[in-house]
Amino acid sequence: VPDPYYGGLDGFEECLEMVEAASEGLLADVREQTAGRVA
After folding, report:
1. 30, 22 in Cβ contact below 8 A?
2. Whole-angstrom Cα distance, residue 18 to residue 1?
3. What is the DSSP letter of 30?
4. What does residue 22 show for φ and ψ, rounded to 5 degrees?
5. Is pLDDT of 39 > 90?
6. Can you tell me the distance from the alpha carbon of 12 to that of 14, in angstroms, rounded to the nearest whole number?
7. Res. 36: pLDDT tops 80
8. Helix, strand, coil % in the chain, rounded to nearest 5
9. Local structure of 37: helix, strand or coil
10. pLDDT in tens, 3-32
11. CA distance 12 to 8
12. CB–CB of 15/1 below 8 Å?
């Protein structure tokens, strides 16, 4: 994820979009790896 500081508002929006997209895949992977486990 690039540093959005110098990209103005567009830079922050782009950064947020990247983080949101990556978090979906990360969450899916964590759920898959922890399926059936008891906390």
Report:
1. no
2. 7
3. H
4. -70, -35
5. no
6. 5
7. yes
8. 80, 0, 20
9. coil
10. 999 889 999 999 999 999 999 999 999 999
11. 7
12. yes
